[in-house]
Amino acid sequence: MRQHKLALCKEHYLEWMPEQTERFIKKYDMFTHYEKILVAVSGGKDSLGLWDILVRLGYQADGLYLGLGIDEGINYSHESRRLAQKFADEHNLKLHIVDIEKEYGQPIPVLAEKSHRGYGKPCAVCGLAKRHEMNRVARDLGYDVLATGHNLDDEAAVLFGNTLSWASEFLLRQGPVLPSSDGLARKVKPLCRFYEREMTAYCMLRGIEYIYEECPFAEGSQSIYYKELLNQLETARPGAKLTFYLRFLEARKTGDLFIEQNIEQAHLHLCPKCRQPTSTDDLCSFCRMIEKVNATA
Ligand code: AMP
Ligand code: FES
Ligand code: ZN
Known about the structure:
Elements (H helix, E strand, L loop, with lengths): L9 H18 L8 E5 L4 H12 L3 E8 L8 H15 L4 E5 H5 L3 H8 L7 H18 L4 E3 L4 H13 L3 H6 L3 E2 L7 E3 L7 H11 L15 H15 L3 H14 L6 H6 L3 E2 L6 E2 L6 H12 L1
Parallel strand pairs: 1-2, 1-4, 2-3, 4-6
Antiparallel strand pairs: 5-6, 7-8
Bound molecules: adenosine monophosphate, FE2/S2 (inorganic) cluster and zinc ion (ZN).
């Protein structure tokens, strides 16, 4: 793991992942051992890995699978449901299943088509339905918190997109915890500091069978494009993705983001030599540099 300057064997890696997750859960006050957690599981590596980690850490975590009715010639929904169920059965865990077509009369692709939302792609309607249903089930069944498997690659891509358009409202809401509010369950993303490939390695080493295919409608999406860009950056500068995300969280927490006052408040005074404003105590940085050069000459 070049980003952490760390190399671990299988045994230690499988201990390191839950330890790091527990740390992050505590750091951000996500939930306690007394609370009931609903994990949204898609059958992919992130959410199944998350469920596995939470159970290993001794949390009370049940699963929720949403049947979206996406086939596209690869039996996508059917296969992902089978793998989510398989994991639950093998670990003796409770999995709630909600089928969108059964609840609302049509599968996601048809709902998208009929509602004319999302420019010919079902992803917007799908995201809307997922958020709605996850929240409904969490609330109706009395769960304290809803956990999703978003990883660092997901979060960094969203942050990148929001930053490119300076979507301040979204930036202020993006984070590992979204507190509950009227009718909305608390939402947490305990994996948001793990790289996607760290989750792949975890599932492989734990022998968790997950669906390899991405949703067939995701092809060519903006978020995949941003992920590719960030991966190029990460290759050139290992750790850049993690820094990008964690520094954002820090800046948001301390309230340093978007506050004009911060600039005005910086105490500037005039450099005694050149009379240009500076934030240093005495000579400005330029004059100090020249002085030093002359002193050594
Ligand atoms: P995605 O929307 O595919 O980026 O997935 C983000 C997270 O949403 C996953 O890690 C899961 O926790 C959750 N999720 C996605 N699809 C489903 C699904 N069909 N059923 C339950 N949870 C899901
Ligand atoms: Fe919903 Fe692809 S359109 S997961
Ligand atoms: Zn000066």
